[in-house]
Amino acid sequence: MKPVLTVGQMRAVDAEALAAGVAEELLVERAGTAVAVGALRLMGGAYGRRVVVVAGKGNNGADGRVAAARLARRGARVTVVEAAEAPERITARSGVDLVIDAAFGTGFRGAYRAPAVPPEARVLAVDIPSGVDGDSGEACGEPLRADVTVTFAALKTGLLQGDGPALAGRIEVADIGLDVSRATIGLVEDADVAASLPARGRGAHKWQAALAVVAGAPGMTGAAALCAMGGYRAGAGMVRLGVPGADPDAPAAAEAVTSRLPAEGWAKEALAMAERCRALVVGPGLGREPGVAQELRALLGAFEGTVVVDADGLFALGTGDEAARALAPCRGRAVLTPHDGEFARLTGDAPGGDRIAATVAAAARLGAVVLRKGPTTVVADPAGAVRLVTAGSPRLATAGTGDVLAGAIGALAARGLGPLDAAALGAHVHGSAAALGPPEGLVAGDLPDLLARWLSELRHGTDGRG
């Protein structure tokens, strides 16, 4: 898992190194050298290249000046201009191969108007594009769009949310000798799934990874089917499916064992259905009738495994303190999966620009793991641990994909992962699987088979088809 730091956490890491006797000048030399190496890769060499370094007064500017010296020694024609003079100095030039944006770093506050850059020039940003908030990723003013950003020690949250991903280009993390091992935020990678997902032993049987799903209502059984199949394809050995008020003779998913649940007062029978299950998903297509909230609370108070609350289940929780009270009996064992609109209703607050900080605060307040869907999916637990997932794509913006995700998270929890890991790895598997499907026209029904294919290729080097 790649470590990710906020601005405050990065300052603490720097301060710790300085207190341990590491000279600031040495860190600047290492950072500037890393920028120069990144520039060489971007240009394909240095000799004869024309480079303009826009340097501010702080450490970013110092890094840029070190890079300028290194590139000049390699034969580049380098000009260093002060950030305040950059608009006029660069606009007047032509034939520039590379602009190094070293004007301001992650601690910059205010609005930054970047210089006009010749269209043929590439742009390399130092640590973060100038004018982008290091925490939220919000762009203030008119930052340059970088082709590459060389950042130091660890990724920064501002590079992974808000405007950051669009402005940073390809991100290269340079090791400059700082200890980031205590980072509480991590970016999920394929290797994390491979290392964490329990394998099925020779003596495995279906009840070892049994999942219960309470979902659907008359006319909404498609959501239940997608959730159940998402669970099966992510490795659940058994899915027990209860659809309140629906005809049990018309099962939503052929492989699921469907139980008859009454239209009202269904919590007791749902608990009996889920008795041997290690995880429970509740909410997709459940409807918003007044009685759903009461039944959900009864379910949360009695089920002892991991509970994934999705879609209509989130609506039934209520808002703010009301939701926290409903979740109190299963503190730390619940996973909530809101999109931004559901998140705003659930917390009772209009979400600010820093989606990561807001999700951390919500998880602590609600006492649950919160998975906030988005271009960068944020997963936080009540203790403040955070996982970020960037595997998703716009092709998932279609009805029903969230139902599949809820089932996949439930299956990973049933297979033995804790709530935080089940949610974060489930989101990564979900997004990665979607990338195997068509870029246009992907529908939720495609995803379950893609989940199985992606997991099989990751774990066994084959999609299982030959």
CATH architecture level-2 label of the largest domain: 3-Layer(aba) Sandwich
What name does CATH use for the topology of the largest domain? UDP-N-acetylmuramoyl-L-alanine:D-glutamate ligase
Strand count, sense and barrel status of the largest sheet are: 12 strands, mixed
Sheet with most strands: strand arrangement: 9-1-11-20-19-18-17-16-15-12-13-14
CATH class type of the largest domain = Alpha Beta
Rg on CA atoms, Å: 25 Å
Helix content: 25-40%
Q: Unreliable runs, pLDDT <50, ≥5 residues?
A: none
Number of domains as seen in the coordinates: 2
- The overall pLDDT average reads 93
Outline type: elongated
CATH homologous superfamily heading of the largest domain: Ribokinase
Could you characterize the architecture of this molecule?
The structure is a single chain. With 466 residues, the chain is α/β, with parallel strands linked by helices. The chain has 2 domains: 2-183, YjeF N-terminal domain (Rossmann fold, 3-Layer(aba) Sandwich); 190-460, UDP-N-acetylmuramoyl-L-alanine:D-glutamate ligase (3-Layer(aba) Sandwich), CATH 3.40.1190.20. 38% of the residues lie in helices and 18% in strands. It is built from 16 helices and 20 strands. It has helices spanning 7-19, 24-43, 59-73, 86-91, 164-168, 190-196, 221-233, 267-273, 291-302, 312-317, 321-327, 340-347, 355-366, 401-414, 419-434, 447-460; strands at residues 2-5, 50-55, 77-82, 98-102, 112-113, 122-126, 141-142, 148-152, 155-156, 170-174, 185-187, 210-214, 238-244, 257-261, 279-282, 306-309, 334-336, 369-372, 377-380, 386-389. The strands form 3 sheets. It has a 12-stranded mixed beta sheet with strand order 9-1-11-20-19-18-17-16-15-12-13-14, sandwiched between helices. A 6-stranded parallel beta sheet has the order 3-2-4-6-8-10. Helix 6 crosses helix 15 (419-434) and helix 7 (221-233) packs across helix 14. The longest helix has 20 residues, at 24-43. The protein is elongated. The chain starts with a strand and ends in a 6-residue tail after the last helix. The relative contact order is 0.10. The model has no long low-confidence stretch (mean pLDDT 93).
